[in-house]
Specification:
Rossmann fold, alpha/beta, globular, 15% strand
């Protein structure tokens, strides 16, 4: 396919250079999407994801953009449209956990950064997607999946800012679903539990496996989260919007 050929199904995945985002990018490509693989710093990892997709005859493009910067979000969408086509799917996977620290040590700069990426970035990416996808603006409709965290319910030790922003993502999901439904856009949120991404510790402070509290007896994988995301993007979930879907192994 020529470089600037337009794809019918195009998916932007923020934070797609590693973990759940990378797994979702690879699976989306296998399901027929051209994929915008967004990254903020790790270009090498993003390019590795692109190479894996291209090795399987898929189409992908690594695009640097800081989801905490509004101008970068605009550029992400503009480049995707120019080089891949108009997005029909968006996965808001980029996340800034902030520092794991006591609340009395938390500073305003960190709170602002976590909020800018996790909550404001999700809203602004969704706003850009609505302009592209909504049938009310000449689009063909589409689907958006946000990524929250089951820690909103179980508690995230010394991650107050992160948990607060993820709770915010869940809170806006229903509002966005109501607002964007008339334009043919579905909006849902996936809440991963303990996932083996390398970003979260696999043992607790006492050295015990964190899997002991999970009914299925193990941590989840990024690929299992990706499967749920792609299902929500697909026609198989055509009557689902405004949902908060836990993928937690029962925890």
């Amino acid at each position: 396919m020529e470089k600037n050929a337009v794809n019918k199904q195009v998916c932007i995945i923020t934070g797609a250079s590693r973990g759940i985002g990378a797994a979702t990018a690879k699976l989306a490509a296998r399901r027929g999407y051209a994929v915008a693989v967004n990254y903020v710093r790790n270009e090498a990892a993003a390019q590795d994801v692109v190479r894996e997709i291209e090795a399987e005859k898929g189409r992908a493009l690594a695009i640097q953009a800081d989801i905490g910067e509004p101008d970068d979000i605009v550029r992400l969408f503009e480049r995707t449209i120019s080089e891949l086509g108009v997005p029909t799917a968006l996965v808001n996977s980029a996340a800034e956990p902030g520092l794991r620290q006591a609340i009395e040590d938390t500073d305003a700069a960190m709170i602002r950064r976590v909020t800018a990426v996790n909550l404001e970035g999700t809203i602004l990416c969704t706003a850009q997607a609505a302009r592209c996808m909504s049938t009310q603006h000449g689009g063909t409709g589409g689907a958006i999946v946000n990524i929250s965290s089951q820690a909103v319910r179980t508690g995230g030790y010394r991650l107050t800012s992160y948990i607060g922003t993820k709770a915010g993502v869940e809170a806006i999901t229903g509002a966005l679903a109501r607002e964007l439904g008339a334009g043919g856009i579905r909006v849902n949120t996936v809440c991963p539990g303990l996932i083996a991404t390398g970003a979260a510790p696999t043992v607790d402070a006492a050295g015990n496996s964190r899997a002991k509290d999970i009914p299925l007896g193990r941590l989840g994988t990024p690929e299992e989260i990706a499967e749920t995301i792609l299902w929500l993007l697909s026609p198989a979930a055509s009557y689902i919007t405004g949902a908060i879907i836990p993928v937690t192994g029962g925890r």
